[in-house]
Amino acid sequence: MIKFSLVCETGHTFESWFASGMAYDHQTGNGLVVCPACGTSKVTKAIMAPALSSSRTRVIGNEEPSPPQLAAPGAAPPALLDPQHLEIRAVLGAVRAQILADTIDVGKNFPEEARKIHGGESPERPIRGEATAEEVHALIEDGVKIVPIPAAPEDLN
Ligand SMILES: [Zn+2]
Question: What is the pTM for the complete model shown?
Fold first, then answer.
């Protein structure tokens, strides 16, 4: 099983379990994964980026662990977003364009690159990319500060 951090077309972030990366592709491709907050099937993996010192966001660290949740058609579990999450999301939405303009997309190498930069093995530079929920949690445990970037509607299809 693999857990991905996902984001819907309107910017709700949530996590969902999949049997594999291929199962994720299959389920999202067939509209079987729905946003628990608004029910849309237009969801994609959340893009991760290092925390910006200017944005005053302390993200993810205060996230409550949630039980494994399998996406199923028609199932819309209640949203688990608290006001702080909503506020953070609004801030992230506002700075999203700036983040994308200022960062280098390293794709699936994000966890490795973020760790190298944190450890001083790679030159410090702004990057963004994909990470599974496990990778995100491992990075946070290692003290690497990262934040999710809400996806823009044009990133979803
Ligand atoms: Zn949503």
Answer: 0.41
